[in-house]
Amino acid sequence: MPIQSTVLLNSLLGPITCVYRTGTNSITGTAANATNSIAFTNQVLTKSSGPSLCFGTAYFSATYSPVQDATQAGNPVYVN
């Protein structure tokens, strides 16, 4: 199942809902041991529904930190 994001835009015409999806079932992130983080940068999402006022492409970027393994009493996750 593709990853999906729903965006609600407020316009002069009222609220507009745009739905975007990835072309695959995953996105690519970079893990960093120094900050116990995972960063996602400029992941491409394509419009799957919404009016013509919605952009055809959206980009997702985020950093999540600290990433922890809940089964290990709050210990961070390390990558090799």
Structure description:
The radius of gyration is 17 Å and the shape is elongated. The strands form 2 sheets. Strands 1, 2, 3, 4 and 5 form a 5-stranded antiparallel sheet that branches. A two-stranded antiparallel ribbon has the order 6-7. The protein is an all-beta fold. Helix content is 0%, strand content 56%. Strand 1 (4-11) and strand 2 (14-21) form a beta hairpin.
What profile does the largest beta sheet have?
5 strands, antiparallel
**What order do the SSEs take from the amino end to the carboxyl end, as H and E?**
EEEEEEE
Instruction: Tell me what portion of residues adopts beta-strand conformation.
Output: over 45%
Give the CA-CA distance, first to last residue.
Answer: 28 Å
Number of DSSP strands?
7
Mean pLDDT metric = 88
The coarse silhouette is elongated
The Rg value, from CA coordinates, equals 17 Å
Helicity, in percent?
under 10%
Count of discrete alpha- or pi-helical segments spanning 4 or more residues: 0
Decide which structural class fits the backbone.
mainly beta
Give unreliable regions as ranges: none
